[in-house]
Amino acid sequence: MTKHEVVIAGAGPTGLMLAGELALAGVDVAIVERRESEGLAGLRAGGLHIRTIEVFDQRGIAERFLWEGHKALRAPFAHTPLDISDLPTRHSYFLALWQMHIERILAGWVGELGITVHRGASVTAFRQDEDGVDVELADAGLPDGRQLRAQYLVGCDGGRSIVRKTASIEFPGWDATASYLISEVETADEPEWGLRRGTHGISAIAKLDDGRARVVLHEERIMQGIEPTIDDVRNSLTGVYGTDFGLRSASQISRFTDMTRQAAQYRVGRVLLAGDAAHVHSPMGGQGLNLGVQDAVNLGWKLALVVQGKAPESLLDTYHAERHPVGARVLRNTMALTAMERSEDRIDALRAMMAELMQQDETRRRYFAMMSGLDVHYDMSNGDTSESHPLPGRRMPDLDVTIDGATLRVFSLLHEARAVLLNLSEPGTWDVSAWADRVKLVNAAYAGEWDLPVIGVVTAPKAVLIRPDGYVAWVADATAQGLDDAMSRWFGPPAAA
C-alpha cells in the first residue's frame, strides 16, 4: 500500500493549487486524477479575477499567467463594460486566459515542486479511521496495488464528486433551470455577431482571430450530465437563430447549467472538500475557478500544520467557518446574474436600473471588489466583540516596505507559504521565538503611505501578523495586546523550551 500524508482527488486548478500549498509547507502530498494526460476538453473558465492573481503573486508565480493572458481593464455588468482600473490593488484588471492554459501552468509549477500525480486513476471508495484514510482507486497502475493510505483525503473532484457522495455530505440547493453550450465553430455563412437575449437566457456569437466563431447557445431543453456533440451545437444554433449558418465544424464543446448547490459541510473527520466538489453554480461572472483556488489557499496551510502535529485538528474547522459563507455569497451572486440575463419586461427594467446604479463610482467599486474577492472579510474576533481595528480578517495590502535597505513588496514575503510577523517598529519589540518554526519575523519600515482604500485610511500599525493565505490575523494598534493568543489560535501552541 502506497502511503502519503495527504491525497487529493482531482488535478483541476483547485487540486493543483492545494497540492502546491501543501508541498511548500513540506507535506508529502499526492494527486489522483482520472485523466490520462494533462489537458481539458471543452472551454471552461475564461480567466482570473483580481484576488486570484494576487494569490499567485503571493507565491511568486503570477508572471507565468500574466505572460500568456490578456489584461482587461474593464469588466462587464449586464454586458456593459465598466472600469476596474481604480480598485485598490496592483492587479486592477481581469486576466483573460482559458482554463486549459491555467491548468497547464499550475501543473508545471506542481511538477517543479516534485508532487506525485497518479494519472489515469480515480477514487472509487474510501474508509476513514482514527489515524487516517484508506483510498480505493480504479485503474491506478500502482506497483503495489490499487490502494493509497493518507492522513487526510481532500475531494477536489468536481461537481459530481465521488468523495462528497461517499462521505454522505448533503448537497442542498437549486436544480438547473437553463442549459447552455459553448464551442468554437466554423461556418460557411457569416453568423449573426453579438448578443441575443431570450426569455430564458442569452446566446452570443463572437469572431475569433482565425476566422472561426465562439458561440454560447441557450438550449431549449436542460441537458445536464450529457456529453455535448456537434449535432447539439447545430440544433441549438437553429433553435436560437433559425439557421446553423452552414456549420462545418465544432471543437472544444462544453455544456453548463445554472444548477446551484453547496455542500452542507466542507469537512467530515479526515475528509475535506474544496472547489466544485463543495459548490457548483452558474458560470455567470466567472467566479467558480477563482473561488476554488482561494478555497485551496485557505485550507492548505491549516491542513499542513495539523498533519505535522503543530496545530490541533480543530484548526480545520475554521476552513468551513471561513469559506462556506464566501461560497454561499458567490452562489447568491450567480443566481442573481443568471436571472438578469433573461428577457422579460420586468427583468429588463431591473437590469436597466442596476446598470444605472453601477455608473456611481462607489457602487461600481464595491461590486467588483465583491466579484473579484477583494472584499472578503473573515471573522478574527474569536468571540471578542470589542475588536475595533478594521484590518484583521482582511487581505494584507501589497505595500512597499524597506528591509535591510532594500525596498520589497509585502507579497514577496509570502512566497514560501509561511506566516509572517511584519514588525514595523523597533527591532526586538516582539518575541516570536516559540513559533519560529511556523512564523517568520521580518523587521521592516514603511517605504510609502499607509492607505487602505477599501476600508478607509487607518493609523499605520506597528506590526501585522499575516497568515500564509495573505489575510491579517492580528495588528499592533494602540494597545498592542494579544499577539501570543493570535499565534496560538492560528499556528498552534508555542514550542516547548
The whole-angstrom Rg is 24 Å
As residue ranges, the low-confidence spans are none
Helix and strand content put the structural class at alpha+beta
Strand content: 25-35%
Oligomeric form? single chain
Major pleated sheet: 8 strands, mixed
CATH topology of the largest domain: FAD/NAD(P)-binding domain
Q: What is the class of the largest domain in the CATH system? A: Alpha Beta
How many separate domains make up the residues?
A: 3
Which homologous superfamily in CATH is the superfamily of the largest domain?
Answer: FAD/NAD(P)-binding domain
Q: How many E-type strands?
A: 28
Please report the number of helical segments. 11
CATH architecture of the largest domain: 3-Layer(bba) Sandwich
What's the rounded overall pLDDT mean? 90
| Basic shape | globular
How would you describe this protein?
One of its GO terms (molecular function) is monooxygenase activity. Pfam families: FAD_binding_3 (PF01494), Rng_hyd_C (PF21274). Keywords: FAD, Flavoprotein, Monooxygenase, Oxidoreductase. Residues 4-334 form the FAD-binding domain. This protein is of the alpha+beta class and 497 residues long. The protein has three domains: 2-46 and 98-172 and 261-341, FAD/NAD(P)-binding domain (3-Layer(bba) Sandwich); 178-257, 2-Layer Sandwich (Alpha-Beta Plaits); 400-491, Glutaredoxin (3-Layer(aba) Sandwich), CATH 3.40.30.120. Helices cover 28% and strands 26% of the residues. It has helices at residues 13-24, 50-58, 62-68, 99-112, 162-166, 230-241, 288-307, 317-340, 345-357, 361-372, 483-491; strands at residues 2-9, 29-33, 47-48, 70-72, 74-77, 80-83, 94-96, 116-119, 122-128, 133-138, 147-155, 173-174, 179-187, 194-197, 202-207, 213-218, 247-257, 260-262, 267-268, 271-273, 279-280, 400-403, 406-409, 419-423, 439-443, 445-446, 463-466, 472-475. The two termini are 38 Å apart. The relative contact order is 0.13.
